[in-house]
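[Meeting: bench + compute handoff]

Bench side (C.D.) handed over the final construct sequence. Compute side (W.E.) agreed to return the predicted structure before the next meeting so the bench team could plan truncations. Sequence as handed over:
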Amino acid sequence: MIAQTDTSRRDDLIARNLAAVETHFHNETPETIDAAIAVYTDDIVWEVPARAPGTTVSVRLLHAFQCRDGKIFREHGYEIWRDINDHARVQDDIPATAAVQVFGSP
């Protein structure tokens, strides 16, 4: 039997962690949310901004993940909000198929 090298173990771990993140992203829908949650550890720390804006905005979204053994144990969501009507600052190339989400007021 050939022993696995440290490099190959590291590569395997990275691949499993990236697969967990990919599974999470591809299942963030109401129909498949259970699959997205299944890649969280039991002690997940999930921090994202609370939403209840009354302004139409352009949002850049960043997810930062920390993984352990092929599961996500920490997820931070960062959102950069800009007034959609500020044409000097908001010059995004938004695809016609982009999702629009409307959040209610508090």
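W.E. noted at the follow-up: Residues 6-25 form the longest helix (20 residues). C.D. will use this when planning the next construct.
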